[in-house]
Amino acid sequence: MAIDEGFAPSGVNERSYYEGNCPESFGQDFRDIRNSLSHADICRINGGNRITLTEFHYKYHKFVYMLYENAIAYWSIEKLEKVELGDVSSFYQSIFKIE
Questions:
Q1: Which residue blocks in 1-99 are alpha helix, DSSP H?
Q2: Are 33 and 51 in contact (CB under 8 A)?
Q3: d(CA 55, CA 33)
Q4: Please, what is the Cα angle at 76 between 74 and 81, to 5 degrees?
Q5: pTM for this structure?
Q6: C-alpha distances in Å from residue 28, one per residue of 12, 14, 93
Q7: Which of 19, 28, 35, 62 is the most exposed place for a label (fewest CB within 10 A)?
């Protein structure tokens, strides 16, 4: 982990902040936030009894950050060049003009 290796961004908390299990409610709340923020209908932004964006941030920030960091680690452009993923690789190569 970046914290352990000493190259984490300055805004990242101590390792102990990221330890522990993800709450079971994360998946449903993540979906609710995505649905609330990804629609043009203003009525959906006021989520009714759903979690607010502020509540979601304070409750799940560390888990979203870990998802983001893991996605970068496993799906960075450098690694995509080395992995053959069939049509995905062909599309990637055509977009970035890789021979």
A1: 2-5, 26-37, 42-45, 53-75, 77-80, 87-95
A2: yes
A3: 10
A4: 105
A5: 0.58
A6: 26, 27, 35
A7: 19
